[in-house]
Design brief:
19% strand; four-stranded parallel β-sheet; alpha/beta; single chain
């Protein structure tokens, strides 16, 4: 019988946040119960036009994880001081929190259209 995983976690590649994300998921009792997709910027990386080539890779992976692991929830963990936002926005002035929230909004719209039964959680992790 296949092991049923509870969630897929979308998080960033930033080394400063690997341990905090792991500890966050451990507190949620998800150790060994989630699929992981790690990409620069997390939700920013899979929604911002600057990273358009990455979008389908995430959606294909999410679809595969649903089929293989029976996940029912997507947990998205973005973080403060995001280098991907700096790359995406270039020299334009921006408010980081607004970019995170916009990426969450875009991702929610895309995921709910393709996977309407999937539950969604969005988090912005602090540096501290």
């Amino acid at each position: 019988m296949k092991k049923k995983y509870k969630a897929m976690v979308l998080s960033c590649i930033d080394p400063r946040f690997q341990t905090p994300v792991y500890n966050f998921l451990k507190k949620k009792n998800l150790s060994g119960k989630y699929s992981s997709f790690t990409i620069a910027g997390a939700a920013v990386g899979v929604t911002h036009i600057k990273f358009k080539k990455w979008h389908s890779a995430f959606l294909d992976n999410l679809s595969t994880s649903i089929k293989l692991h029976g996940i029912n929830r997507l947990i998205v963990v973005n973080h403060e001081d995001c280098g991907a936002i700096k790359i995406a926005e270039g020299k334009k002035k921006f408010k980081e929190e607004q970019i995170h929230k916009l990426s969450f909004h875009k991702l929610k719209k895309i995921v709910k259209k393709k996977f309407p039964k999937l539950k969604l959680e969005f988090h912005i992790m602090k540096l501290s």
